[in-house]
Design a protein that fits this description.
The chain has 121 residues and is of the alpha/beta class. 36% of the residues lie in helices and 11% in strands. It starts with a strand and ends in a 20-residue tail after the last helix. The structure holds NADP nicotinamide-adenine-dinucleotide phosphate (NAP).
Length: 121
C-alpha cells in the first residue's frame, strides 16, 4: 500500500492499521526524518521514499522507483467546522474508512468525504 502523507497523522494511522492487517506499506512525504521515524515504528513491513506531490517530476520518480504496487490510492480528508457533528473525525475513524476501501480487490480510486455530516445538511 502506498501512503503519501503516511509519515504522520491520519496517513500514519492508516499505515499502522494496514500493517496490522498484513499489508506492506510504502510511506511518502517530503521530510526524510519524519518518514524514517514512522517506518521504524511500523517495523519490517514499512519502507519510505521522499516525494513532493506539488512537483510532477518528484511524483513521477516516486512511482517509477516502486517495484510492485497492487493499487494506489490517495485519500483527501476535508474538515468542516459547520458539520452536523461539529467535530473533526478522529485519525482512527478516517483510517478505518480508508482500510475499508482496501478490503476488496476492485476499488482502485475513491475520494473520501469524512465531513461529519456536512453534505447531509
Ligand atoms: N475530516 C476530518 O474530520 C479531519 C480530521 C483531521 C484532519 N483532517 C484533514 O486531513 C488532512 C490530514 O490531516 P493529518 O492530521 O493527517 O495531517 P498531517 O499530520 O499534517 O499529515 C499530512 C502529511 O502529508 C505530508 N505532506 C504534506 N504535504 C505534502 C506534499 N506536498 N507532498 C508529499 N507529502 C506531503 C506531510 O509530510 P511532509 O510535511 O513531511 O511532507 C504529512 O506527513 C488535513 O488536511 C486535515 O485538515 C480532517
Amino acid at each position: 500500500m502506498v501512503l503519501i502523507g503516511g509519515g504522520s497523522g491520519i496517513g500514519l494511522r492508516v499505515a499502522h492499521q494496514a500493517v496490522a492487517a498484513g499489508a506492506h506499506v510504502i510511506l511518502g512525504g517530503r521530510t526524510r526524518e519524519r518518514l524514517t521515524a514512522a517506518a521504524q515504528k511500523l517495523g519490517s513491513r514499512a519502507t519510505w521514499r521522499t516525494v513532493d506531490t506539488t512537483d510532477r517530476s518528484s511524483l513521477a520518480s516516486f512511482f517509477a522507483e516502486l517495484d510492485h504496487v497492487d493499487r494506489r490510492e490517495a485519500a483527501f480528508a476535508q474538515y468542516r467546522r459547520d458539520s452536523i457533528l461539529r467535530r473533526p473525525g478522529t485519525e482512527d475513524e478516517i483510517a478505518q474508512s480508508v482500510l475499508f476501501l482496501f478490503s476488496n480487490g476492485f476499488t482502485t480510486g475513491a475520494t473520501l468525504y469524512p465531513d461529519g455530516g456536512y453534505t447531509l445538511r
